[in-house]
Amino acid sequence: MDDRLFRNAMGKFATGVTVVATEVDGKAHGMTANAFMSVSLNPKLVVISIAEKASMLEKIKKSNTFSVNILSADQQELSMIFAGQLKEHREVVFDRLGGVPVIAGALAQAACEVTATHVEGDHTLFIGRVIEISVEESNADPLIYFSGKYRSLSE
């Protein structure tokens, strides 16, 4: 099967957009990711999927913590920054939740401790136990990604 065909087919699944963040040696790092899902309510677990070639992989292995930040529709620029889509450097200030860096103004933030890792294909799955969570009390829409483009909800 052709790689492009597989990517195009998977792109037909609309997803929210997150920034996964961690801290190593006192420096916060983030990457845009849509490979995220909740796993369990009891205990409260989530999973993220990080490519073997991503620099974030070793950072999460070293820190053993990460946050998942669910972006709002007005945070598309942050998504682009952490996806490496903007050429000029922009400084991002992180807040903290449960001792882990988080994105200010995200619709929801979950601070997690890694409980398990699974290497599957060219990705590593990190299972994270949610140690603290925050939800933005607003009516903002989520940032959506579908078929290779950012999208928005319509009524």
Automatic annotation (TrEMBL):
GO biological process, any: pyrimidine nucleobase catabolic process
InterPro entries: Flavin_Rdtase-like_dom, NADH-dep_flavin_reductase, Split_barrel_FMN-bd
A matching Pfam family: Flavin_Reduct
A molecular function (GO) term: FMN binding
Record keywords: Oxidoreductase
Domain Flavin reductase like span(s) in chain numbering: 10-152
Name of the featured protein: Flavin reductase
Organism expressing this protein natively: Neobacillus rhizophilus
